[in-house]
C-alpha cells in the first residue's frame, strides 16, 4: 500500500466540493485548534497542543506516511478545512481508522462523508476485508454512529469499546448514505 495508490482514490480528488488531503506541517495550527477545543477533545488522547510540538509530530508522521505505516488526512469542504481523520495499525487483514475530529459548525453530512471516505480507501483502494477501531466509552454519538453504519462491537475494556466493520457492510452503508455521498461528491464550480 502506498501514498500513490491512495492518491488515485476519488476521496482525495480536489475536483469535488468535499474531499480529503494529506496533512502537511502547515496544518499544525489548525490541528492544535481542534485538539485544544474542550468540546472536541473529551474523547481523544491528550497531547502537547503547542504548534511547534504538532509540527514536529507531523514531520515525524511524514516518514511513517512515506513508509505506508499510516495516513493522516484533513477533511475539506469548498476549500475550507473542517477536521482530521487518520488510518493506521494496518494488519494483514484489517486497517484501523480514527483520530477523527470535526468542527461542530460543519456542512450537513460531512461526518458521514468522511467515514465513507475511510471505507472507500480501505476497501476499494487498499483492498482490505475489514476495518477495526475503538471508541472511548462515553463518546455515545460516535458509538451510535458506528452501530448505525453497521459496525459490530467485538469487546470492551475499561477505556474503550472495540469494533469491526466488515467489507460486506461497506456497500450497505454506502447505499444507506447515498444522499450524503452524492451531496459531497459534487464537482467544484
From TrEMBL:
Coiled-coil parts of chain: none
Bilayer-crossing regions: none
Single annotated GO MF: acyltransferase activity, transferring groups other than amino-acyl groups
Domain of life: Bacteria
Listed Pfam families: Acetyltransf_3
This protein's UniProt keywords: Transferase
Limits of the N-acetyltransferase domain: 20-151
Protein name (record): Protein N-acetyltransferase, RimJ/RimL family
Organism: Phaeovulum vinaykumarii
